[in-house]
């Protein structure tokens, strides 16, 4: 049995090296992958992102989520490997929760092994193995602008259909905006837990500490941003750096370019994204080096409703009437609804549109008659390019307060 296992481990390591070195047989390396096409196209630099797809990098990424999101990811790889995931995230009164199911199949493995009964070395082809990860995440605003989150992951790995091992891992992360408009920073500890053990062969989990920053600005129909991450692998004692840039036109079409330093095969990543009415399709191409080949990854997600804005953009102030429509006033008052609205207005003026959206929503929860809070939400939706959603919010505001001629004029001119 041990002779068989030894040959299997040697052959398995060869397959993993060809495929990028990510599987449970290498210490649950699937736990260290980004597993989302946009994050991968940015060189895995997603520690500071507030995109729900980045939850597998930093659980704090989902803290500001307001609308449910369902997502799927698929990446056919070289050497017959396949990686995929399914995910769902939902806001609750206590914070945002998310669930993710991730799997990896390693393809076939061919090797010689010693048959003790015959004393020969026959050739055998078997399924190399697979990984399955079930993860649950929770995130919320912890203190002022600080977002914090955690993920609990259950890993089951199988090898050659005969051996298996289980592990439990945890991620803890935080994210917050920076004083610079459109900028944010994040930190995360990933995969803290006990390693896998196949019979008498053990491997630690890919424990990693990461920190990163991101910035995104917009000018009219064009938005651009960049991200930079640095991580240290405790088990591998290796430092990795990822960086990426992204350009977006009308919040619909995005081009991305990412670079990873410290990766055995991946270096330059190229990506494309298309978004429309809550649906988003992202693609990433990973060249693996001359003579090795390339991987392709595709993510598909759908948002069931408006999402807080993550881009800093002037709200299309084309006329004095429009400027008034996009400039809600702050009226200090001791009531909870007024306090939330005052904070929403302050954050909106400071360029923190996702924070403004969240506090405006709390103002409506405290007082459903707050027409001004609906107007702030509409403003935030406009900054994201969700004009249809903004019109719905503006109409809700006008139903509560018809005496807003500037806003009514803008809505009438933009049916």
Overview of the structural elements:
The chain is of the alpha+beta class. 23% of the residues lie in helices and 42% in strands. The strands form three sheets. A 14-stranded antiparallel β-barrel has the order 1-2-3-6-7-8-9-12-13-14-15-16-17-18. A two-stranded antiparallel sheet has the order 4-5. It has a two-stranded antiparallel ribbon with strand order 10-11. A hairpin with a 3-residue loop joins β14 and β15. α4 runs parallel beside α6 and α5 runs antiparallel to α6.
Main pleated sheet? 14 strands, antiparallel, barrel
Query: Which structural class best describes the helix and strand composition?
Result: alpha+beta
* Helix content range: 10-25%
Rg over C-alpha atoms, rounded to the nearest angstrom: 24 Å
Q: Ends: how far apart?
A: 73 Å
Strand content: 35-45%
The order of strands across the largest sheet is 1-2-3-6-7-8-9-12-13-14-15-16-17-18
What is the global morphology?
Answer: elongated
User: What is the H-and-E element order?
Assistant: HHEEEEEEEEEEEEEEEEEEHHHHHH
Total E-strand runs = 18
Count of helical regions: 8
Unreliable stretches (pLDDT < 50, length at least 5) are 1-26, 307-333
The pLDDT mean sits at 81
Summarize the structure.
The protein is built from 8 helices and 18 strands.
List the helices and strands and how they pair.
Layout lengths: L1 H18 L17 H5 L27 E8 L5 E11 L2 E11 L2 E5 L10 E5 L1 E15 L2 E14 L3 E15 L5 E11 L2 E3 L2 E3 L4 E12 L2 E12 L4 E12 L3 E9 L6 E9 L2 E9 L6 E10 L16 H6 L10 H15 L2 H14 L4 H14 L2 H14 L4 H9 L2
Antiparallel strand pairs: 1-2, 1-18, 2-3, 3-6, 4-5, 6-7, 7-8, 8-9, 9-12, 10-11, 12-13, 13-14, 14-15, 15-16, 16-17, 17-18
Helix pairs in contact: 4-5, 4-6, 5-6, 6-7
């Amino acid at each position: 049995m041990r002779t068989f296992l030894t040959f299997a481990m040697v052959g398995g390591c060869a397959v993993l090296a060809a495929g990028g070195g990510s599987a449970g047989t290498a210490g649950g390396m699937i736990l260290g992958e980004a597993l989302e096409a946009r994050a991968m196209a940015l060189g895995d630099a997603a520690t500071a992102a507030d995109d729900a797809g980045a939850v597998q990098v930093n659980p704090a990424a989902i803290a500001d989520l307001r609308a449910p999101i369902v997502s799927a990811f698929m990446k056919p790889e070289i050497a017959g490997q396949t990686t995929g995931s399914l995910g769902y995230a939902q806001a609750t009164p206590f914070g945002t929760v998310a669930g993710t199911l991730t799997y990896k199949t390693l393809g076939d493995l061919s090797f010689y092994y010693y048959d003790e009964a015959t004393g020969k070395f026959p050739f055998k082809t078997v399924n190399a193995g697979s990984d399955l990860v079930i993860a649950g995440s929770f995130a919320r605003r912890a203190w002022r602008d600080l977002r914090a989150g955690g993920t609990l992951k259950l890993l089951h790995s199988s090898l050659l259909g005969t051996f298996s091992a289980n592990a439990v891992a945890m991620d803890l992360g935080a994210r917050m905006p920076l004083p610079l408009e459109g900028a944010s920073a994040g930190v995360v500890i990933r995969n803290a837990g006990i390693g896998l053990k196949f019979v008498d062969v053990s491997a630690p989990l890919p424990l990693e500490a990461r920190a990163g920053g991101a910035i995104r600005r917009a000018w009219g129909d064009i938005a651009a941003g960049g991200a930079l991450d640095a991580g240290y692998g405790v088990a591998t004692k290796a430092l990795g750096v990822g960086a990426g840039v992204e350009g977006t036109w009308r919040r619909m079409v995005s081009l991305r370019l990412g670079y990873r330093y410290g990766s055995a095969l991946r270096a330059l990543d190229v990506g494309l994204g298309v978004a429309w009415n809550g649906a988003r399709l992202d693609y990433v191409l990973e060249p693996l080096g001359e003579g090795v080949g390339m991987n392709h990854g595709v993510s598909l997600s759908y948002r069931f409703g408006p999402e807080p804005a993550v881009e800093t953009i002037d709200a299309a102030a084309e006329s004095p009437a429009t400027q008034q429509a996009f400039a809600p006033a702050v009226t200090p008052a001791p009531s909870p609804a007024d306090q939330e609205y005052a904070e929403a207005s302050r954050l909106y003026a400071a360029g923190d549109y996702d924070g403004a959206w969240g506090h405006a929503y709390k103002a409506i929860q405290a007082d459903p008659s707050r027409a001004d809070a609906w107007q702030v939400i509409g403003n935030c939706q406009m900054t994201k390019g969700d004009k249809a959603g903004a019109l719905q919010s503006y109409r809700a505001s006008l139903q509560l307060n018809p005496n807003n001629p500037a806003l009514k004029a803008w809505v009438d001119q933009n049916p």
